[in-house]
Amino acid sequence: MILSLRRAGWLASLLLGLSGCEPAPKGFDARDVRGNYDLTYDNNLKVALYLGGAVREVTATGYGNVLDFGTWQGQPLKLDLTQWCDRPEVQCPSEVFWPKVAVDQPDLKASNVKLQKLMVVNDTQHTLDAGVQAAVVAGLVNHDDFDRFVVGLGAGGGSSSNCVLLGLSLAGGRFSHVGEKFEEVTVFRTPLGAACDPDAGIADAGSADAGTADAGLSDAGLADAGPACAPVMVKKLVTPNGAVTNGIAEGRIGIGWAGACAFGPVVAGAVLTLETNFTGKRTGNFDPPPFTPVEVTLPDGGLDAGTLDGG
What we know:
Elements: E1 35-41, E2 44-51, E3 54-61, E4 66-72, E5 75-80, H1 81-86, H2 93-96, E6 100-104, E7 115-122, E8 136-142, E9 148-152, E10 170-177, E11 181-189, E12 230-238, E13 245-258, H3 260-263, E14 271-284
Antiparallel strand pairs: 1-6, 1-14, 2-3, 2-14, 4-5, 6-7, 7-8, 8-9, 9-10, 10-13, 11-12, 13-14
């Protein structure tokens, strides 16, 4: 099952770099993103129904909307988001990736690797009754990729309940840092977007002296077959060395259910997905309510699974 987050190339984009120029403070670990965060959702929703080999997509601002997905086998497919998200068996974004969270990296001190386990604890209610544990989800954060992270949200992909989140439900984003900025730099790309070297052309290879021009290659159109290598301007994220984490940027959540959860058995086999964006602000050091650690559960067990980038 592929959620509609694929268009952003979310997981595929975890291949960037990090740079800085000032010395880091003593004892500073640039990989450390631990802390407590407040999350804010923009509530610009994209809801998609995968049905009968096609995708029916509707957008909405906020949850006070009735979404119309047309008809199927003579039955109208309308979804009142407010009523649906209020159902106790349905969990919408802020119920599975909470407005207040405590973020931990349990293996940070044990290894020097850049790819670290990440645990996100529900801190919406910080003080709990005796014996009560806060909910927690786990994933990975990659310091070699601008501290981008992804966590798995769906634990019930194999459940018989239609309203349990599918196992491919994910949340992700990038931990931001004090003083970071985007700069425009020039890179060279082919028309298809591949990296290229403008000095690596065949002009310096002596092909003209070798008589290829007399062989009719230009007339055959082969001279036009090679990719052009042209300069393009791109934005590069620059983070000062030693900059501490101050929030979450580029946050995105995508969750999915069996379509029958919303429309009943008439759409058996369908999948309903909802996605929206969020940002986060770091509010202090890691200070969680009581919780029990969980294992990482991601598609293929890693960041490069491509589940959200299958398009």
